[in-house]
Amino acid sequence: MSEIVQYDILIVGSGHAGAQAAIALRQRNFSGTIALLGNEPSLPYERPPLSKEYLSGDKPFERILLRPAAFWTDRAITLLPGRTVVAVDVEAHRVTTADGGIVVYGTLIWATGGSPRRLTCAGHDLTGVHGVRTRDDVDRMLDELPMVERVVVIGGGYIGLEAAAVLTKLGKHVTVIEAQDRVLARVAGEPLSRFYEAEHRARGVDLRTGVAVSCIEEVDGAASGVRLAGGEILPCEMVIVGIGIVPAVGPLLAAGAEDDNGVTVDDHCRTTLPDVFAIGDCAAHANAFADGATIRLESVQNANDQATTVAKMLTGTPEPYHAVPWFWSNQYDLKLQTVGLTTGYDEAILRGDPAERSFSLIYLRAGRVIALDCVNRVRDYVQGRALVVGAFQVDPALMADTTIELKSLASARSEA
Ligand code: FAD
């Protein structure tokens, strides 16, 4: 791409947030030119299946496309795949791509997500060491899998645990190592962590918490094991690193955008740069459901809802971002659905029986409902949302009583 091209709206990053921004703009009858530029080679696709049905082989790539090819053409959304923005010139309203191309924009929407955080120890870049972020990442894993018997997953967050579940089902011997004293420590309450630890162990996963990695061992340039801080070596042919992401915001920060572990945006997703918005995993925003703290959310919900916020702004119907966070994770036959954020909870109420593999945890802060984690309990998830949105104060004994529907508690209480 050496010629200079120009679009009314240039979206950089063609993942969930970028694609949804283009879709929402057309849904709101935006008639100007739109380009969706991204560094991946393929059509925009869903990322969550990468650690679920795509890794397991249950869904081919065509079934995880966000939209078929014709959709983008029909709506006059220009796709510019395989291009990486390396610089942003805010004064001139233009970006430069790695291949030397220049794209001029009226408005820039930055939707670049993040890259998997890498280990820093020796061996982090060996063949057989994988992050899980893109289709290419998973395709490389799938190519190697027939030769793999043992996998070590570093990091007991959702992505690591989902990959562990799939690979266990595929007959691999899986070890999960987590530096903290429980899995999912950053995102869930302790009872949920303990439940998932037990589920993985029951299926043969060697799950170890409070364990640090020293280095990745090597044979002929490929990973052959993971050496732990205590000296033990876990032999393996594949290492999966699931220790979070680093927001992909380098060019925007270099252009002067404000940084707070992500590009800072206001409640309309505006950055501090003129005519530049940021959305999705890379956007640091003040979130009402985190008590107003500035956070980044890494979820499809946030990507889609922030995309809609920008589309509303750019089509003359601004509405501040105030969406309730929600998320899901599938492991084995367990469908977890969460709503709200557990940050700062001081009480967790158990509703249902983990032994029956269908239960919810309702999190309170200062007596108010702030979040729910629902395992195989769709009804609680659907009905509990109102308790979170309204920050209700409800008698814990009533919420724990499974004979009482959560919706009756929400409707019985006025917002306190
Ligand atoms: P992305 O979808 O990552 O898209 C960003 C795009 O920008 C990428 O294609 C990237 O390559 C590209 N890019 C980066 N830098 C540049 C540049 N300089 N120039 C051009 N292009 C660039 N969320 C859920 O809610 N539920 C789940 O179950 C769930 N499971 C997940 C499983 C996996 C394996 C992963 C990786 C994520 C999962 N998520 C899940 C999170 C969810 O997918 C993300 O929150 C969502 O994709 C964020 O959308 P985004 O557009 O901000 O970023």
Which helices and strands appear, and what pairs or packs with what?
Blueprint: E1 4-12, H1 16-27, E2 34-37, H2 53-56, H3 69-74, E3 77-80, E4 85-89, E5 94-97, E6 102-110, E7 114-116, E8 129-130, H4 135-144, E9 150-154, H5 158-169, E10 173-178, H6 190-202, E11 206-209, E12 213-219, E13 222-228, E14 233-235, E15 238-241, E16 245-247, H7 250-254, E17 263-264, E18 276-278, E19 283-286, E20 294-295, H8 300-314, E21 326-331, E22 334-340, E23 347-353, E24 358-365, E25 368-375, H9 378-389, H10 396-400, H11 406-412
The chain binds flavin-adenine dinucleotide.
Flavin-adenine dinucleotide binds next to helix 1, helix 8 and strand 21.
Brief descriptors of the model:
single chain; 416 residues; alpha/beta; seven-stranded mixed sheet; 11 helices; 30% strand; globular; binds flavin-adenine dinucleotide
Please characterize this protein's 3D structure.
With about 425 residues, the chain is an alpha/beta fold. About 25% of the residues lie in helices and about 30% in strands. It contains eleven helices and 25 strands. Strands 1, 2, 3, 4, 5, 6 and 18 form a seven-stranded mixed β-sheet that branches. It has a five-stranded parallel β-sheet with strand order 8-15-9-10-11, covered by helices on one side. Helix 1 (about 15-25) runs parallel beside helix 8 and helix 9 runs parallel beside helix 11 (about 405-410). The chain is globular. About 45% of the residues are buried. The mean pLDDT is about 95. Bound molecules: flavin-adenine dinucleotide (FAD).
Number of helices: 11
The CA-CA distance between the termini, in Å, is 57 Å
The main sheet comes to: 7 strands, mixed
What best-fitting shape do the alpha-carbon axes yield? globular
Q: Cofactors and ligands present?
A: flavin-adenine dinucleotide
Mean pLDDT: 96
Low-confidence stretches: none
Rg to the nearest angstrom?
A: 22 Å
Strand segment count: 25
User: What is the structural class?
Assistant: alpha/beta
Kindly estimate the percentage of residues that lie in beta strands according to DSSP.
25-35%
* Helix content class: 10-25%
